[in-house]
Design brief:
Jelly Rolls, disordered N terminus, mainly beta, single chain, 12% helix, binds calcium ion, six-stranded antiparallel beta sheet, 27 strands
């Protein structure tokens, strides 16, 4: 049967609507995917927006391009890296966006594009929505006059009216974790949401042996041992002990209170390369300050070696080895080597709430992410908007272990001109001590605090969970008669 172009176009459009709405069989073969368990990445609500130019395409973006072109060899690479921030920075400037050349007006290519999009966005066998898109690390997709954001609360296809209709390519914009090959698509393990920020860090080593499988990028790839991927190794010096350092430049300043180092665990070399004398150091703005140090550290066993220290506000952390270990399997060369390193934020609780806006930098987890103020990427927790002030909204932090708690500090939102807005008028703070909720703070008619942190002290006791319950909310303003409960951060201290 011969169809008119118009009929064909109408049929194609109808089919496209159907295929994006429900899993409908396509002619194009599905790409292969590994088998995954139930654990999966969170949505990338806190993945930072692009800020400037990187030096080139990111490894994960290149992998994703190669993957698509390998499975659909008729399709095209329309580019990854372009440094042109004239109209504001975007994913291409940072090498983490890929333009996949497929033509919406070519039925074969359109089917291929929508096969891949359906494959990315489908739930997995455990019911995880958008499963492969999360595992690969995709922030948003633009295709054929529509856009879908994985980093916003509304994850439906919405009309897109940018200058390019994106009918000749799909724009895939990746998260930093995806662009750095740190998501479960590559590592088999969901990228960290446990307060480890090393996976988002840039690495600055004193030296790096980049051969024989060794690469600095393996020291924060989420693989904890050195058999599947190796790790970072400094250059070696035969018979000459010397100093080496591995610096992590973190995506922003946070409170950090521990570093975990994983030694080599490849057979015959367990613990080799782990320094004998070393310090964990943080940058205070003008100098490196040691916060934990060890001397004569014995050859370590495989697995996690955790080094805690008093919380430090910083965005640069390094491991500074001052006496290295000679490896007899390596010609007695002195090197510093780690299979993996983790940098932990002081805040690592699990957050739950009566309601939470998960968009525009707001997220429940941002009330316990070590960021005390409101930044575009991390504003804090916000309840939903309530029409009346008399509403109950709470936010709760479950700590990894009981912690002596005699002081709670509530940090208001600090973004001008909204500083202090959303700070509750009437509220309680309660601690779960293992058997009961104990109310330790009760306030009514609390004044609008502006940007000033509000601290409350009480006799210390071990707490496993803390809950802040607002029972009277503050109005957003005369022009917006809605009522949110909002906090940038919650901190606990012993006294
Ligand atoms: Ca590793
Ligand atoms: Ca915060």
């Amino acid at each position: 049967m011969r169809l008119s172009t118009r009929t064909l176009a109408a049929l194609t459009a109808a089919a496209a609507l159907l295929t994006l709405a429900s899993p409908v069989a396509h002619a194009a073969p599905l790409p292969p995917a590994p088998t995954f368990g139930q654990a999966i990445e969170d949505y990338p609500y806190r993945d930072p927006a692009p800020t400037g130019c990187a030096s080139g395409a990111q490894a994960g973006t290149l992998d994703w391009k190669d993957f698509l072109l390998r499975h659909y060899p008729n399709t095209r690479n329309l580019g990854i890296f372009v440094c042109n921030t004239a109209g504001g920075a975007g994913g291409h400037d940072e090498g983490r966006a890929f333009d996949w050349g497929v033509n919406a007006n070519n039925p074969v290519e359109r089917d291929q594009a929508e096969t891949v999009l359906g494959w990315l966005l489908a739930p997995d066998r455990f019911g995880n929505q958008h499963a492969l898109a999360r595992r690969i690390g995709i922030r948003f997709i633009i295709w054929n006059r529509r856009i879908l954001h994985l980093n916003q609360q509304d994850k439906s296809w919405r009309p897109y009216s940018g200058a390019s209709p994106h009918t000749d390519h799909v724009h895939f914009e990746m998260t930093w974790a995806g662009a750095r090959r740190q998501t479960s698509w590559w590592t088999g393990r969901p990228s960290a949401s446990d307060g480890n920020l090393a996976t988002a860090a840039d690495l600055v080593p004193s030296s790096s042996y980049e051969a024989g499988g060794w690469t600095r990028h393996a020291v924060n790839d989420g693989v904890l041992g050195s058999t599947r991927t190796s790790g970072w190794s400094s250059d070696g010096q035969t018979g000459v002990n010397h100093a080496e350092a591995l610096e992590f430049r973190l995506p922003g300043r946070r409170w950090f209170d521990a570093v975990t180092l994983y030694p080599r665990d490849d057979p015959g070399n367990i613990g080799q390369g782990f320094p004998a004398d070393f310090a964990i150091e943080v940058w205070n703005g003008s100098a490196w300050v040691p916060v934990a140090s060890r001397t004569g550290y014995p050859l370590p066993s495989a697995g996690a070696h955790r080094f805690p220290f008093p919380a430090q506000w910083t965005d640069r952390v390094r491991v500074h080895g001052t006496s290295l270990r000679a490896n007899p399997n390596d010609g007695n060369r002195f090197r510093m080597q780690f299979a993996e390193a983790e940098i932990h934020t002081a805040a690592a609780g699990r957050v739950s709430a009566t309601s939470s806006i998960e968009d525009w930098g707001w997220s429940a987890q941002a009330v316990n992410d070590g960021e005390r103020g409101s930044t575009g990427a991390s504003n804090g927790w916000s309840s939903k908007g309530n029409p009346a002030p008399e509403a109950t909204e709470w936010v709760e932090i479950a700590l990894p272990a009981p912690r002596p708690t005699g002081r709670v500090t509530l940090y208001p939102r600090t973004d001008a001109p909204h500083a202090g807005m959303g700070f509750p008028v009437d509220f309680t703070v309660a601690l779960w001590t293992g058997q009961d909720w104990e109310t330790v703070v009760t306030r009514t008619g609390h004044p609008q605090p502006g940007a000033a942190p509000q601290s409350f002290t009480f006799p210390a006791r071990p707490a496993e969970r803390i809950r802040v319950t607002a029972t009277k909310l503050r109005v957003d303003g005369p022009a917006q008669p809605t009522h949110h409960a909002q906090l940038a951060e919650i901190e606990l201290a012993a006294s």
